[in-house]
Amino acid sequence: MPLEDYRVPPGQPVQLSRWATDDDDGLSKKQGQALLPDLEERLADLQERLYAEGRQALLIVLQARDAGGKDGTVKRVIGAFNPNGVQISNFKVPTEEERAHDFLWRIHARVPRLGMIGVFNRSHYEDVLVPRVHGLIDPPTAERRLEHIRAFESLLTDSGTRIVKFYLHISPEEQRRRLQARLDDPSKHWKFNPGDLEERAHWDDYTAAYEAMLTTSAASAPWYVIPADRKWFRNLLVSQLLIQTLEEMNPQYPAPTFDPANVRVE
């Protein structure tokens, strides 16, 4: 699979229409799902090495529209990792305490420590999406926030944290199907928020906001646009990209501080 085709080039304007939401790279669902067990095994191995090494961290950022598949990605892909080495954070509407600080204050405290994998299921980018679409901040403020985010991510990179960011790209038709499915299934009513329909009415405004967000793609903190209409393909692509990222980090088991040949367990 040509993984770089899904990477957002740094320093260029972004048009989401460049990426199809229903891409499957010519695979069938059966073929794609058959690949996942081996990928999960490789992810688990790389995470164990990262945890044992304790010298690097990985921050995974997930952003998507409502019903875009963030929770499903966490369950199916992040679920391959040992929970002891993963920290998942979800940033929603800021609290009164959080609003009394700069917008990155609440984010920095949730950055993974060395050896850990952090997952932001919604992230610091929320503060340049909803406020922008609803006119709570003006375009110059949104652009300044993007610049602060670039500097923040550069700081994390310099401190040993690798960053990889995924935008889960779904079509309005697929979002409609998923929202309707939540209404049709009583066991899914808890996942339905009537406010999602209001946000859906701002589809084009959100497209512009996401395209601005994606301009923060950098060599050290890339954005990937993940076709997400097909859940199995979303999981396959995110898994492969995480493996690629972790292999580039190349975590190693630490050398023992003793000579195992001289130790005998009686």
Write a structural description.
The protein has 266 residues and is of the alpha/beta class. The protein has a single domain (3-251), classed as P-loop containing nucleotide triphosphate hydrolases (Rossmann fold). The chain is 42% helix and 12% strand. It has helices at 29-53, 70-76, 96-99, 105-108, 130-133, 139-158, 172-184, 195-200, 203-213, 231-249; strands spanning 57-64, 86-89, 117-121, 161-169, 223-227. The chain has a 5-stranded parallel sheet, sandwiched between helices. It is globular and about 70 Å long. The mean pLDDT is 96. Keywords: Kinase, Transferase. This is Polyphosphate kinase 2 family protein. Residues 1-28 are annotated as: Disordered. Pfam families: PPK2. GO terms for molecular function: polyphosphate kinase activity.
The radius of gyration is 20 Å
Kindly give the count of domains: 1
Described by strand count, sense and barrel closure, the largest sheet is:
5 strands, parallel
According to CATH, the fold-level topology is Rossmann fold
CATH H-level name... which superfamily? P-loop containing nucleotide triphosphate hydrolases
Task: List low-pLDDT spans.
Answer: none
Per the principal axes of the C-alpha atoms, what is the gross shape? globular
Number of helices: 10
Instruction: Tell me what the CATH architecture is.
Output: 3-Layer(aba) Sandwich
Number of strands: 5
* Relative helix content: 40-55%
Distance between the termini: 50 Å
- The level 1 CATH classification is Alpha Beta
The main sheet orders its strands as: 2-3-1-4-5
Mean pLDDT level: 96
Keywords: Kinase, Transferase
InterPro entries: P-loop_NTPase (IPR027417), Polyphosphate_phosphotransfera (IPR016898), PPK2-rel_1 (IPR022300), PPK2-related (IPR022488)
GO molecular function: polyphosphate kinase activity
Protein name: Polyphosphate kinase 2 family protein
